[in-house]
């Protein structure tokens, strides 16, 4: 994420900020807390959706045919259906004083979009209450 942060900081405009997309976590590194802390001063928006670590299982989590196919595969799933470390994610957001936009970012199943939306809203609220406290 460093090149993006460098550009945003160089532009130095309140109109240009950083969006952290949790389902892309494993493409940029494995340390969610470190990435969020690094972006804290320019972080304005987070996407919340789970995914699997494509680097796990010796890089064989997703098998593509034919072998050697140049493709990236990842999902945007409901919280709890993947491997994003949610306590690290929400705990770090609270610790850095995040007060921006938080959007559910799930598009795995069109036929259960309503259920997914309600589930994600409830799960996000649980973490918000846990780490920011209830008002």
UniProtKB/TrEMBL annotation:
Gene3D superfamilies according to UniProt: Divalent-metal-dependent TIM barrel enzymes
Pfam families: AP_endonuc_2 (PF01261)
Domain called Xylose isomerase-like TIM barrel: residue spans: 3-122
Highest rank taxon of the organism: Bacteria
Name assigned to this protein: TIM barrel protein
